[in-house]
Amino acid sequence: MKKIILSLAVLALVGAGVFGLTRAYFSDTATVTGNTISAGTIDLTVTGESETLPFSLGDMKPGYEEVVIKKIVVTSNPSNVWMRLKDFVRSTGEVNEAECKAELGIYHPDWNTKCTDIPNEHNDLDNQIYYDLSVCIDSNDNGTCDGYLEEAIYSFDEKDLETLASLGGKWIPLKMDLAPNIPLLVMQSFHFNEEAGNEYQGDLLTFNEEFAAYQQEATSPTGNILFMENKDPNTWQAIADGINGKLAYNSAGETFDYTFEAAGLVDGNYSLIYYADCDANGWPGDGVAHNTGALIAKFTVSGGTGIIAPTSGSVELGTDLPNSGDYNSPAGAKIWLVLSSDYSATVAGNQGHMTGWHPTQYLFENDPTLINYENE
Hints:
By secondary structure, the chain is an all-beta fold. The chain has helices at residues 97-102, 164-167, and strands spanning 4-12, 16-19, 24-38, 45-47, 50-52, 65-75, 79-91, 106-107, 115-116, 129-137, 151-154, 172-178, 184-192, 204-215, 225-229, 244-249, 252-253, 256-263, 268-275, 293-301, 308-315, 334-339, 364-365, 374-375. The strands form seven sheets. A five-stranded mixed sheet has the order 1-6-13-10-11, with no helix packed on it. β4 and β5 (50-52) form a beta hairpin. The protein is globular and about 75 Å long. Mean pLDDT is 76; it is low at 1-22 and 40-58.
């Protein structure tokens, strides 16, 4: 059962300074406050030979879905657009008899406080709401994705199974290089876990949405930070499996300065690389007839920790990211963490190419994020 909500958020680039690692960029933010997800209740009453099941179509119940569509418009300049869900506030709401019993409390139908002595209270509704997120260009400004394929960022159907709790406070890239005055439709689906029990009846969750538009040269609203994830090589959707990384970097300079960390990896040797697509297919990148990027750094994971601790470095790449021969230019550059045994270069800064392909063991840029760096 779906309820469709259409609202408008307009982001205009104005003279607000936001500082990254090395230089300032123009930016603007808009916050949508007071978003609420309410769990509905079902009170079963026997009246003679019939049963009444009062409910509201606006209530969220296990297995229900809410769809929210927002239209994002930036003006004046091409922009990178991000969003995050934040300021989660949980509330148990009104506790009925079914919830009280599920939480092992004592129910008093005639008391003002009807449920007492609750040893097993649950009000973490954000852990019970699965989340879809997709975007598309609305070129005719008519509320449809006309002529453009929808781009899924998180997909319930692909079983990414991201919950609101897992995304709280995380900046999510929506669209890089969004053209001025071209609407972007942002479609969010909220799925109430069909296995949620009576302990969630009547619970309440409020949260805020924040959208940010940054000029094209800046990549992240938190500074220049790239989130990296493990992906399903069949669908190229991110997998919520705890395998991830984070790259902080400078957007300009004589050297590419970075801090990299990762978690959830298997033991082995890894190479952090700039991968330059050679054509629309993004492969083969054989290093002979094609410009294929460069090695940034090498790491070793051992002892079963799965961790690359935060490591800083500086490398002379001698090229912009992306370089002019990259099929992705000028939008941005792809950054991957691959097995060193699948990559040819061994010295940081040298051009290299892929020699093997084991993508389930790699980290890829968090679509649709590509980075930009100006070599000075």
